[in-house]
Specification:
Layout (H helix, E strand, L loop, with lengths): L5 E5 L5 H11 L4 E5 L3 H7 L12 H8 L4 E4 L2 H7 L2 E4 L19 H13 L4 E5 L7 H10 L2 H4 L2 E5 L9 H6 L4 E5 L3 H14 L8 E5 H32 L3 H9 L20 H14 L3 H28 L8 E5 L14 H11 L3 E5 L5 H10 L12 H4 E3 L3 H5 L4 E4 L11 H7 L5 E4 L6 H7 L2 E4 L13
Parallel strand pairs: 1-2, 1-4, 2-3, 4-5, 5-6, 7-8, 9-10, 9-12, 10-11, 12-13, 13-14
Bound molecules: uridine-5'-diphosphate-xylopyranose.
Length: 477
């Protein structure tokens, strides 16, 4: 029988929280404790009706396990002392100041966690690098642990990257394509990898649990995200080509995706990718390559980010140009602010770039999103987009309203701009919306999710990605 492990996780965020809930649910013999410094966050996790993050299926999981074998605490030291296996799932955001600013990952939270573990642990521990880290980061952790020779033999470091996507986190964790565990190629290393594999084997088929050396595992996480993001930038670059030629990007994606060597997933053209991982991990990969003197490699991956910036910018430029080259003083309804559907997360959301560019052009904006909390939206608006910060302060409060009713957002608007692919946007009453808008009424579908022919028949001028606009005033040129 597998061991009844005592598990703890440092960091109660988007990765640590859902991962520990799924482990607790599937390993009733294990005790799982999630520890975080932020008391507010821990308190929220203790109330399944008001969790700090929104994920479909998550509150049911918490309800089923909380207080039985799942616990949340701010007492990091006790949690560490008690545990056999310690997941480190603290944030590693892109540095905003200092060396490598704008590219390198900020490793200060990770180092503090490691130092804390080294200080308080008295029994053997398996330390699981869950946070996304640069390649060879485990070496740093091992060095911190060996600063105290008495305790050095207590620690085994393994890397176990998280591949869950937000909005589908619970399902991704329950039915992963694979679980990847990297460890040292020593007997003790193999033993640590096996014990972590045994935890996952409670619900993941053995053949889907793969093991590698530490550096391959660390590297694979950055590379997986770089490849995924590259597909989006590739198809988004083709969307511009389609607009210029009369090809249709969704038709092209379908045609190439049916080639099994290419595959159909992750070829949906968009206003640009967002989220906490893609940009951060690619910048991390670029920085790593640069540090190793691999200039061409760094330039190659940097281009994925460049196309993404370009896609966000040109989408907004198209809005301005099609609306008679000016949106000054016009009301524009922004539908969706989260970086994707089924999440309230807004990190690196392309909506923020679009909103800022439209503000710069003097528009008045009404923003609607079904899940993004009010405070979070305003915080993002105050900071502005991370890679293209505004040249001057923006009159945010005067020109932006955050509305909770989508029909109020579109009332009297000149245009609708869809930034997130929320399902509910497909079934709105567009006849009613058309009736309440200024004419000509424009729709810019930044996710290609709406029924464009129908909208055109209702009377809208419809602009989508990667194809020619549907307009009642055909251009003569
Ligand atoms: C991603 C990876 O998918 C996941 O494996 C990793 O662990 C973390 O990073 P996440 O950022 O949560 O997950 O969401 P994902 O579904 O990958 O979407 C990222 C961005 O790409 C979103 O803004 C999404 O809207 C966009 N996207 C995705 C597209 O524009 N087109 C697509 O075809 C797919």
């Amino acid at each position: 029988a597998p061991r009844a492990e005592k598990i703890c996780c440092l960091g109660a965020g988007y990765v640590g929280g859902p991962t520990m809930c799924v482990i607790a649910k599937n390993c009733p013999d294990c005790k799982v404790t999630v520890a975080d410094l932020f008391a507010d966050k821990i308190a929220q996790w203790q109330d399944p009706d008001h969790l700090p993050i929104f994920e479909p299926g998550l509150s049911d999981l918490v309800r089923a396990t909380l207080g039985k074998n799942l616990f949340f605490t701010t007492d990091l030291e006790s949690a560490i002392r008690e545990a056999d296996i310690i997941f480190v799932a603290v944030g590693t955001p892109t540095k905003t100041v200092g060396i490598g600013s704008g590219h390198a990952a900020n490793l200060c939270f990770l180092e503090s966690a490691a130092r804390l573990i080294a200080r308080v642990a008295t029994t053997p521990k398996i330390i699981v690098e869950k946070s996304t880290v640069p390649v060879r980061n485990a070496e740093t952790l091992m060095r911190i642990f060996t600063t105290n020779p008495d305790s050095a033999r207590l620690f085994q470091v393994v890397n176990n990257p998280e591949f869950l996507a937000e909005g589908t986190a619970v399902n991704d964790l329950l039915h992963p394509d694979r679980v990847l565990i990297g460890g040292q190629t020593t007997p003790a290393g193999h033993e640590a990898v096996r014990r972590l594999a045994d935890v996952y084997a409670h619900w993941v088929p053995r053949e889907r649990i793969i093991t590698t050396n530490l550096w391959s595992s660390e590297c694979s996480k950055l590379v997986a995200n770089a490849f995924l993001a590259q597909r989006i930038s590739s198809i988004n670059s083709i969307s511009e080509l389609c607009e210029a030629t009369g090809a249709d990007v969704d038709e092209v994606a379908r045609a190439i995706g049916m080639d099994s060597r290419i595959g159909a997933k992750f070829l949906k053209s968009s206003v640009g990718f967002g989220g906490s991982c893609f940009q951060k991990d690619i910048l991390n990969l670029v920085y790593l390559s640069q540090s190793l003197g691999l200039t061409e490699v760094a330039d190659y991956w940097e281009q994925v980010i460049t196309i993404n910036q370009h896609q966000k910018a040109r989408f907004t430029e198209r809005i301005v140009h099609s609306m008679f080259h000016t949106i000054t003083g016009k009301k524009i309804a922004v539908l969706g602010f989260a970086f994707k559907k089924d999440t309230g997360d807004t990190r690196e959301t392309p909506a923020l770039d679009v909103v800022y560019k439209m503000l710069d052009e003097g528009a008045n904006l009404a923003i609607y999103d079904p899940k993004v909390p009010d405070e979070l939206m305003w915080e993002d608006l105050r900071h502005g987009p991370s890679l293209s910060p505004p040249a001057r302060p923006m009159p945010l409060e005067e020109r932006i309203s955050h509305v909770t009713d989508v029909y109020q957002a579109v009332e009297g608007a000149h245009a609708i701009v869809v930034c997130t692919e929320w399902d509910e946007f497909k079934t709105l009453d567009y006849e009613r919306i058309f009736g309440s808008m200024v004419k000509p009424a424009f729709i810019f579908d930044g996710r290609n999710i709406l029924d464009h022919q129908r909208l055109f028949q209702i009377g809208f001028e419809v602009h989508s990605l990667g194809r020619r606009p549907l307009t009642h005033f055909p251009q003569t040129l």
